[in-house]
Amino acid sequence: MSSTPRKRPAPDALVAGAVVAILIALVAAVFLTGWGSTLYPPDAATSQGREVRGLYDIVFAFAVAIFVVVEGLIVWSVLRYRRKPTDEELPVQTHGNNLVEIIWTVIPTGIVLFLFVISWQTLNTVDAVSAQPDIRVHAIAGQFAWQFEYLDENGNKVATQLAPVYDTDTSLGGMAVPVGRSIQVTLDSPDVIHAFYVPRFLFKRDVVPGQTNRFEFTIDEDEVGQVFRGQCAELCGTGHRAMLFNVIALSPADYDAWLRALIEANNATPAPLPSGPVLNVAAKNISYDQATLSVPADAAFGITFDNQDPPGVLHDIDIRDGSGRVVADQQTIDGGTKTNYAYDPLAAGSYTFFCSIHANMTGTLTAE
Amino acid sequence: MATHALAPGTQTYSRGTLYEWLTTTDHKKIGIMYVINSFLFFLIGGVLALVVRTELATPGLQLLTDEHLYNEMFTMHATVMIFLFVIPILAGLGNYAVPLQIGAPDMAFPRINALSLWMLPLGGILLLSSFVTGGAAAAGWTSYPPLSAEGPLNSPGAGQDLWIVSIVLIGTSSILGAINFLVTIFKMRAPGMTLFRMPIMVWTVLVTSVLVLMATPVITSALVMLFIDRNYGGHFFDPAAGGSAVLYQNIFWFYSHPAVYVMVLPAMGVISEVLPVFSRKPLFGYKAFVFATAGIGALGFSVWAHHMFTTGAVFLPFFSLLTFMIAVPTGVKMFNWVFTMFRGQLTFSTPLIFAIGFLTMFLIGGINGAFSASVPVDFALHDTYWVVAHLHYVLFGGSVFGVFAGIYYWFPKMSGRMLDEGLGKLQFVLMFVGFNLTFFPMHMLGVQGMPRRIADYAGDAGWNDWNLAATIGGFMIAASMLPFIWNVFVSLRNGKVAGDDPWEANTLEWATSSPPPPYNFDHLPEIRSERPLFDARHGRVGH
To answer: Is ipTM > 0.90 here?
Structure first.
């Protein structure tokens, strides 16, 4: 070792170096074990998502490398250059060095330009939309529910899925699409901004009122049978967190059957009203026109429901008892449509009728 | 050694201390009141954050069964932290330090300075009053229309209007403060204090003031339009009547992205003061640092739409490229800071520890920002908890650690007493561990798909553990404030007497008594470099 007094004794450097090495080993261990995998997005289910995932991995590799180098330098400096009681003389007063300034300007510039270029290339794949997609779906996001319209090649609606969430008991609901086919989604909102987000697609797109956004995805063949979770990702009000939907990956044959069943259900004549009393209820401006309803106890009854809100705003009339248990669960209907709801007999007592989409829409129903 | 005598034009008033403080135009008292006022709002914003974290600790709605109240909580948390804590507390530190560091007796416009200060508690009280007048704003701190428009499911009631009025008021305070800083810095520097001898703290306040002056009127215009939309049937942002919802986002982020640098540049200034002093070396690459600061300021105006990549209404490559480019000057600063410590003699007093905390955390906040610059990756991460992690690593890991470095650094000058080192280090450890426990798991939550601003999540989504960890960390951060408050309390009474220059520092504020007299300096040392006190102590050895 040199004998100049400013040189630190070797053990100090050894300790600092050892700590830096341990930190690097820790970072490596984290990323090579399962614990680090939580820092990666879930496996992509679409060909577009796989592109994003590949890009993420590259950006992530640069991020970890830069983190280790700079954090290592910080830790090294902190451990290596503590002031000793013997340090009375000043350290060398280095004011800077133009060469290193140029180096740490040019190298990061190169890195970010590289990342920009590969990001742009990936973007062109991920964001591409074709003139002739295999399947067209028009997703309408209104406060606080999704509905999916299936369109033919001319853009005409052939069926509407009003139940966005898949029910495992009935195998109904959700946005079904065939695997291996290009799906083009157009997005519209009748009210505020929402966002279509499916984590396993590694993708989201805002649903902006007054502007139709469009994107495409193709689900991998081996994802057949999977049900993907999706939810609104742009704060849209009180029901934001409950604005859920599912995307269901079916084989093309199953999808065709599914769509035929949906068309049939859409065209089915509304259920006949029961023989008991029938009430008339309307909904407008996100509220019912009546705050109290009265029905006879222990007798079936019906409600003719008129949703007078604009299209995209879904309502229904469900009933829960005093303990909060839902005793009647009806299908939602779109704004501008009417339906007949049939209800089973209720025991005498006080109930709450409510909209399953809008928490503020409630009223009292008395069975007597 | 030559000295420049300054004529102290003071009068003594025989009024009470409280009256003296409430009516003062002394930049030092105003700066201290800025800090105290901001710290009180920090505590309020912190409680709001704890409410949010408590609700999210486990799946299910426990604390806030009314989800609207949850939306109010995170909206007000962010609003209070940004507009009433981070921005003003840095303005407060600048208010205290800048005139002293350039050898001026006060700010250029002392009465306007007092006005800027007193608009803040007024705006804050207006904002918080919405909790008792029918509910606070609940459309997020970004308040995007149409959600922030009038309407039963949008933002009914006075809360959103009070939000607009108070932000306009606080913004006006910022504009007045920025003009005051700029005039002070350009017109009131002591003889010999050329621009390139100014402390980096002063440079960062200068660039910040330019950003505030250019950007804040723009958000004011957006807010006025929103107010007209809400109350007088305007249709600026109403798509149903030919307006544009995305227009608001463009105007909003044209301010709010530069505002990120308003929230972080002065904190960079603080640690650029602290690191050289406690390393016994000059700042590495002073001029590179100045140019990097100016470069960040300039680039800061051309990246706003990276907050809007998923809207489908943005020219993506332009904003992606410039967002990537802003990493370059930021990286230059990072390397200069590290090389300031390199081969120095580090004394681990509390200000340095907080400054190192800034470096390590801001590094993460800078790196995870690059993910969002990559547009396709941003499609996956936008509006998830990843973004919450990113912004807190910048604004908490960066700015707040910088703020505490500044408070520990200048407290002896402000009060004449030293803060206790043991309590300071206890605070740091609690805050550092709590911070990382809170915000690092949010990266995982974000990549696994948890969106921001949701009151509840499914118990089987795989997010339970990280959410619980984040909540525990949040309470640790809260606990870290206790030793700090106790530290201030006991040190003001029994703290070690500081003397003029307890840190062997470099800049002019340490050339006067602690606390300084109302007119700041009896005499100034000769100013021949950016380290006049170092020169006075050591002669020209460093040059």
So the answer is: yes
